[in-house]
């Protein structure tokens, strides 16, 4: 039956060239209405919508079928393309100047009434959308998102292929990878009590591939992390992953810049300027209180410690005496009301800050609960340093440096979103470099890698590592280690860390030292990544690489806030797939087969 | 330090154009030897090997370093390309007419003595190879295999992209897919007692994508099945997966043929003739005793039941009375010895056959334990039907039809391999079609899908389905169901099922009927694939698709027997990754977090 109704052209492609020609369309009834003896069908397929007209007089048989059509019925239409009568054109529609006069219609399938219409207007809850994802995906915007994502895949792979990178698949049933997050584990049936881990990234495998001599590897690959799902995190996400041998930072960063420019130019028509801006980690923290700052608005952090070095104000003084810092941001000419200020005070309290000192500059005075404690000199210092003008509102944070960064960095973002300070036109693309290699983890009471344990330290910093290893005194050790910088580089776009990478350690000796600094015993290291350590014994080349978060990159390029809109079948914040109902209970037989039982 | 040693050309690319030019090489010391004051280094990288010469006289510094080099050291070389002295050329090497005179050498990394040399000659056990996969992958042949696989990926995706297919990722943490095999399950941390299943295939999701209106989908995707690993099966394997809407068998099969021809022509330079041969399931079983026959040799099954319809030979008679069949294969002019025959008898016993009747044709007589039971007429019949000639050896199988297929089908393959009957030149590519929709499962005592429950029955066979549903008598029901054919099609190359597909069911009513025939209750159906059933209510288009086994396809194209040779990090038959040691034990904390304990 399909034969004579085999599509000859997509609805969305009907154009001048088809005028007067017979066509066969396949698609969904988007809308249908009967104007006394004439049925008008908006027929929809992947490529768009075209109007189909069925006249009772001319085609009684087709008319009879058309008259019984309902929304989302699946039909085939044989008809002839003609120009719409003057005055009935629809300039908003790509095919709006044409219509197809139907001679034959076949109904391939019917449809129940949809839980929500296929349009962009009707507000539908996220939950319902995800439960009926196949209907949500019929919407123009969702289709465009996934079509765009398809184009990204193809360009990315062509880019790497042309540059001599080899696509190699890495395993899914593997061993814990040390990305810091929790592993998803998979019980083994053949090996009672043992488990596979799903890969958090192909990190170790791509390094192994460099040791194997593949020189340039890439892969677009799913990664899985059992993390506490913050807003807009997915337990499974897609990574553009690559690695190169015999390279330094500049070589890898150049490949990244070329790829990003290729994508933006060819998929968005936007020429990004190269080389990308570079920000040191320190500069980023000092100015924005974040290592992935959103630079599309001001409200920068300003250092004030020097101004208060002799202050009488107890709070500030004790902070400085404890080696802390005092910083502030000036919300210029915002003229915030007291209640607006209070809202911001409450916000920082949710971040765990005791309070938030503030000054509102008024024509005649500084309105503030704390200025009374400041000396004239200090106030003068503030006026100049912060360039105070009427209607400015200044917020202070005093405490440990990292704390001040965290509080003001978050406050800065909070204000920018709340008061629409962000310039959404265009993209701010830049590098953050010179990260610390290690940082002290207060909870674990040990040093941890800022990136991962295979990240190489800056050349020349090996001495610091040796010194730190010898140092007994913890504070002194911290001081030394804080000076060690890594060969890592993160790419930031509009305040999102879109990817990161580093030059890796290829010397077994150096790798051992790093594990020592991390307090990882040789036994533990052997157990966890012995295979990499062994590989380093047999001629490992210098190498480095990078990994992009593809979901976020695509969302950013499409101007979308949520990565769910660029993932065909996303999960909720609780990790549930509302379409399939996963995760779900399994049979006792299944559990027994893999030698586990569920804890009561 | 790398700077001045940054590669300018791959070792394997040194050619006429570089003569007299300064080059920088990075690579591994493949071989090194010192001939009195001159060190010769075979330097290897991804692209090949070139000879590097270091002369003590000319470059004492470089010489001193070169003299201390050992196999698999990683080095950089600055030198000048020159022609090898006459008589010292190596025509077996792409670069064999040139050598690089080294001026500077840098050692990037050293290497312990390898557990086995990087060459094709040295025999190394599979186990050692897999444990040191990074060394095994340095071998020319393995590199070529993965490079070839890389090319397959790129061509496949370009092919689908150009045909308007959209690449869409389907989830890994999902719900059980009904492919018949066991699921790998993943305990959920956020949902105690619940589990995700890893996908056995994207089957349901790609059908959902058709309901969503994407019209043409494709993906190269990992699939995971916890099967009892037969030789050369992997728990995770890669599939080339696609689906199309508004199509019939011919449309899908055409896409498959075009893709296969594209790959063979562009990657192997082989033009396959189209359309591919087609074999009905029945024909395949009758002639070869297999639904994925190897047709590269004869030894076909010959039907003999009619010849023995009135036989006095009890064994045969009782078989025929029980509705069984008698078939034989004739190993022409093999002149097998008695002990060779006995080996084959033993083989079929391993298949569970009681015995194997045979006849050896000798110049003057038929040497056989059973001919004495045959009538002259029956012997005459055999002579003609099997075209008996001296030195022929005939093997009989009598029993249930399926049993005879299984026994002789396997014996046929066994003989072919043992006696090298297989013509290994070229590829035998063909379709098997007209499969039964369902078959009776003796163990489960119910009907099961030959492919999967979403496979559509042949048009016109709906009546048979209704009849079968009404039929009370099981034997009669079996008879009716055995007549129902499906709209499935398998692609076979050189005796391997390289892929399969079908037109799917898009009618909810029909899908319900199939579940009934399969003895799947509505409740169970709702639980397992309710989301697909619901999707069928809302305008599901006619659709169908196909999936290739990429690993096997690549292995076949490379002329390899084992798919392990085309997988970068394969697992053993017991599902172990010898490189990483996965699966492995996990911490009690990890188990507790996902609310499970291991059974003692």
Automatic annotation (TrEMBL), chains A, B:
Record site feature (Important for tRNA non-discrimination), residues: 35, 87
Residues annotated for L-aspartate binding in this entry: 179, 225, 451, 504
Binding sites annotated in the UniProt record for ATP: 225-227, 234, 497, 549-552
Domain Aminoacyl-transfer RNA synthetases class-II family profile residues, every copy: 149-570
Cellular component terms per the entry's GO annotation: cytoplasm
Region span, Aspartate: 203-206
CDD domains for the chain: AspRS_core, EcAspRS_like_N
Record has Ligase as a keyword: yes
Listed HAMAP family: Asp_tRNA_synth_type1
Subunit structure: Homodimer.
Protein name: Aspartate--tRNA(Asp/Asn) ligase
Organism the protein comes from: Thermocrinis minervae
């Amino acid at each position: 039956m399909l034969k004579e109704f085999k599509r000859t052209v997509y609805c969305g492609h009907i154009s001048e060239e088809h005028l007067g020609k017979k066509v066969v369309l396949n698609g969904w009834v988007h809308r249908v209405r009967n104007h006394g003896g004439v049925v008008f069908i908006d027929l929809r397929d992947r490529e768009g919508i075209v109007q189909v007209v069925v006249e009772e007089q001319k085609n009684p048989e087709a008319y009879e079928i058309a008259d019984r059509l309902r929304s989302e019925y699946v039909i085939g239409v044989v008809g002839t393309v003609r120009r719409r009568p003057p005055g009935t054109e629809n300039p908003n529609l790509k095919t709006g100047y044409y219509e197809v006069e139907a001679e034959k219609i076949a109904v391939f399938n019917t449809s129940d009434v949809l839980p929500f219409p296929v349009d962009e207007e009707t507000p539908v809850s996220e939950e319902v959308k995800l439960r009926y994802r196949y209907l949500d995906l019929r919407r123009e915007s969702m289709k465009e998102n996934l079509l765009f994502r398809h184009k990204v895949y193809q360009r990315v792979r062509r880019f790497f292929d042309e540059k001599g990178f080899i696509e190699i698949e890495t395993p899914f049933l593997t061993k814990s990878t040390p990305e810091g997050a929790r592993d998803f584990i998979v019980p083994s049936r053949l090996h009672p009590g043992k488990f596979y881990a799903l890969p958090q990234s192909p990190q170790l495998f791509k390094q192994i591939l460099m040791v194997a001599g593949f020189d340039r590897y890439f892969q677009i690959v799913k990664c899985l992390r059992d993390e506490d799902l913050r807003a807009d995190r997915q337990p499974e996400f897609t990574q553009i992953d690559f690695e190169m041998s015999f390279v330094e930072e500049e070589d890898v960063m150049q490949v990244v810049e070329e790829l990003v420019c290729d994508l933006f130019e060819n998929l968005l028509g936007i020429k990004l300027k190269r080389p990308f801006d570079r920000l040191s980690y320190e500069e980023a923290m000092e100015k924005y209180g974040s290592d992935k700052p959103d630079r599309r608005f001001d409200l920068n952090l300003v250092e004030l410690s020097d101004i208060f070095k002799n202050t009488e104000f107890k709070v500030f003084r004790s902070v400085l005496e404890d080696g802390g810092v005092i910083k502030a941001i000036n919300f210029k000419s915002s003229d915030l009301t007291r209640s607006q200020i209070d809202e911001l005070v409450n916000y920082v309290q949710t971040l765990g800050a005791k309070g938030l000192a503030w000054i509102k500059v008024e024509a005649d005075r500084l309105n503030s609960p704390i200025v009374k404690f400041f000396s004239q000199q200090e106030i003068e210092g503030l006026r100049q340093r912060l360039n105070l003008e009427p209607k400015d509102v200044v917020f202070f944070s005093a405490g440990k440096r990292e704390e001040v960064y965290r509080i003001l960095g978050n406050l800065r973002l909070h204000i920018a979103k709340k008061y629409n300070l962000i310039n959404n036109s265009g993209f701010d693309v830049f590098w953050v470099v010179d990260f610390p290699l290690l940082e002290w983890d207060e909870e674990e009471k040990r040093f941890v890698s800022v990136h991962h344990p295979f990240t190489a330290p800056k050349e020349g910093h090996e001495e610091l590592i040796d010194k730190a290893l010898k140092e007994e005194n913890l504070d002194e050790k911290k001081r030394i280690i804080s000076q060690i910088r890594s060969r890592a580089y993160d790419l930031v776009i509009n305040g999102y860390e879109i990817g990161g990478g580093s030059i890796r350690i290829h010397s077994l000796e150096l790798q051992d030292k790093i594990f020592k600094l991390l307090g990882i015993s040789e036994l533990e290291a052997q157990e966890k990544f012995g295979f990499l350590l062994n590989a380093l014994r047999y001629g490992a080349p210098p190498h480095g690489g990078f990994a992009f978060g593809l979901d976020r990159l695509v969302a950013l390029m499409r101007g979308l806030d949520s990565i769910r809109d660029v993932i065909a079948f996303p999960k909720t914040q609780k990790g549930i797939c509302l379409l399939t109902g996963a995760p779900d209970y399994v049979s006792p037989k299944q559990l027994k087969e893999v030698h586990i039982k569920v804890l009561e």
